[in-house]
Amino acid sequence: MTEYIIVIMAAVLTNNFVLVQFLGICPFLGVSKKLDSAFGMSCAVVFVMLIATAATWPIQTYILDTRGLGYLQTIVFILVIAALVQLVEIAMKKYMPPLHKSLGVFLPLITTNCAVLGVCVNNITEGYGFLKAMLNSLGAGLGFMLAMVLFAGVRGRIENNDFLPSFKGIPSTLIAASIVALSFMGFGGVIDGIFGM
To answer: Alpha-carbon Rg of the chain, whole angstroms?
Structure first.
């Protein structure tokens, strides 16, 4: 049980895909202007990460590895993720039109979100079984959500401040993102300290 908690905590805090591994930066910077759209995008990414892992892990384990086709991993994973994102987009357009409209172009970009592909590849590379792979994906998705929601709050605060003209817009956003990323370095020893690893 402890090892499952460690997998989730590590994915959320110490190996955060956005703030530590720098994967998924495009939606992190693009959709984090408003809290509701950041949360909606995060929920979509969590869902896609979970279903992508549920689809790619068996494909890798039972098809690619058994037939000696492991070299096709990246291509197959991208195709599976693209198909899953299209299904999510169709469902969101039908059942949640306001959220679909607020996410705009960033929803189809989940297809190219390297955090989704990264978590699927990481699950295979780390040698996780199916349950650990799903828990790692859940933790990675929750870590993505944590980063998005935190940064939406930070951006809400910095939008209302006066900066030098050269720092307005993207420069202030990138500086704020780097400070938030630096704050996650403090979690580096937390899991070691709690679980004695």
So the answer is: 18
